[in-house]
Structures are given as structure tokens and as C-alpha cells.
Automatic annotation (TrEMBL):
The record marks N92, K178, R181, R294, R297 as: Interacts with tRNA. Keywords: Flavoprotein, FMN, NADP, Nucleotide-binding, Oxidoreductase, RNA-binding, tRNA processing, tRNA-binding. Belongs to the dus family. Belongs to the Dus family. DusA subfamily. This is tRNA-dihydrouridine(20/20a) synthase. The gene is dusA. SUPFAM superfamilies: FMN-linked oxidoreductases (SSF51395). The keyword Protease does not apply. Catalyzes the synthesis of 5,6-dihydrouridine (D), a modified base found in the D-loop of most tRNAs, via the reduction of the C5-C6 double bond in target uridines. Specifically modifies U20 and U20a in tRNAs. InterPro entries: Aldolase_TIM (IPR013785), DUS-like_FMN-bd (IPR035587), DUS_fam (IPR001269), DusA (IPR004653), tRNA_hU_synthase_CS (IPR018517). Signal peptide: none annotated.
Amino acid sequence: MQYQPHRFSVAPMMDWTDRHCRVFHRGLTKRALLYTEMVTADAVIRGDRQRLLGFSPVEHPIALQLGGSNPAKLAEAASIGADLGYNEINLNIGCPSDRVQEGRFGACLMAEPELVATCVSAMRASQPVPVTVKCRIGIDDQDAEADLQRFVDVVAATGVSTFIVHARKAWLKGLSPKENRELPPLDYQRVYRLKARHPELTIVINGGIETLDEAVRHLDHVDGVMLGRAAYQNPFILADVDSRIFGENSAPASRGEALSKLIPYAERHIQNGGRLSNITKHILGIYHGQPRGRAFRRLLSERVTDPSAAVDVLKDAIALAEHGLGREDQSDAA
């Protein structure tokens, strides 16, 4: 199978998909496309780039997601991202938070396709890396059929060929960001129809997808699938992505192998002044549903609170989960 980077990806999620999370996820899948948290164009231009944008070479393929609505600033931020080595620059047109709306970016820009087109044109002209757009099927009282079609038509005319579509509307008034991820009804068929009308575009579906079985079914209708919370809360789902989604014959990493890969990474992070908890907060779900899963989480949660916690804590947690070493209730599944 020819490698298609958008065939499977892990969604950009604020406070979740930071550099440590992405290194962990890369230990489970070589092929999935990974995304940063959303970073505003202003932060990229003025902020601490190493802290905001730094990443490990093992994270490739990796996309930088930007937020903003000023074409010149987005172009500058996209150029910075390309120079740093990101494989893709993505524009967020899906986030519904009040803070994002006040800054005139995110989902509210679904109502301004011409402005989005101006932004992505500037981003494409500023650097050689592909620019993509992540959006909703609509906002508020928009017609999810006609208005999404117009949005895609206007933006695609700039040369952007990949759209990641969260198959829910965003209600900008009356719903919190959390509610906007759960309450508006999913309309996968609307995304399927978008792909049918635009066979020339790469259409990736996102929203409410919880298993690889579901992902495979979606791939009968669209070009790619993006998982969000399911990939974060039950990360071992990623271990089968390379074989089931990309057709690779290699055996997936076990939970213990994936965690063991993190040990030298964690050692370097601590040596550079970081805390073990920066990393371990992302791995708590890897033994989800397993006999010693709860004990694994409890050990980490209790012992990483010490600012001086070293990698021995991680090693002990792996030994407990894999071999039951230490005091453990064998029926402690969660």
C-alpha cells in the first residue's frame, strides 16, 4: 500500500498532544500523522519557540496546527514552522471556545470562507510545506450542506487540497467547548457526500470515532480518519494502526515495549530540568482494561508528585503492570 500520511492521524488536542505525548504515541505507531496542540500565530512569532514548537526527530511525520485570522501573521508563523521541520501546517477552523472567538479564529471563521482563503493563500505562498484546514460541518444556524460546500469550494480554490472535517456543527453560543465535542449530533454522511462531490480532494473524517473497526468502515467513504480522545484515553489502540490501516506486516509493539522506549527519553528530559510527570501524565491509559491497569495508574499518580521523581518510578510501574511485581490485586482491572 502506498503511504498516505492522512489515512490515519491523531487529533490536535489542547493540553494533551504535547511533545511528550507525541513521542509516546510514536512508540506505538510509525505511520500515523501526529499533530501539535493548536498554537496561535502570535505565540509562534513572539513566544518561546523551543518550548512551544520544539519536537524530537522521532515524531515525524508531524503537523503544526496554527490558530489565527491575520494572513500576514499566519504566513510568518507557517514559514517558521516549515523552517523548524514540520511536515504540514494546519489551520484551525474548528475550535469553538469563547477565547478563540474573541481572537477571531477557530470555528467562527466557518462564516468567513473568503478570509480563510486569504489566510491559507498567504500561508502557502510563504513556505513549501503543504497547508491543510481542519473545520466543522458548520456553525450555529448554517446549512450544513450548502454552507460547508461553499466553504470548501472557496478555500479549495486557493490550492488547499486536504480538509479534516469534524462531523459536528459547533454552536458558538450556549455550549461549552466540552459540550461542543459531545452534544451536537454527528453527521458522518455529510462528510461522505463532501468527498463524493470532491473526489480530487483529500477528505479526512473526525469526531466520535472510538475504534479501529469504525475507522476502517469510514475509509470506505473518505480518504482518512482522525482519532482524538479515544487515541489519548486508550492509547494502545494505536499499536494496531500500522498493520490494520497501513497494511504493514510487522508485529505491533507491546505495552511494555512502548513504555520501555520512553525510559531514555525520560532520562534526558529530567537531566534537562524537566519533571517525570510531564511525560507520565500521557501514559496513564495504556493499560486501560488490563488486570493491573488501576495499580499502574495509582503507582504513577502517587509517586510522580515528588518533583525529584526519577525514571525508577516509571520502571517500577512497568514491572508492576507487566509482571505483577509489588503488592497488587490481580483482579484490579480498569
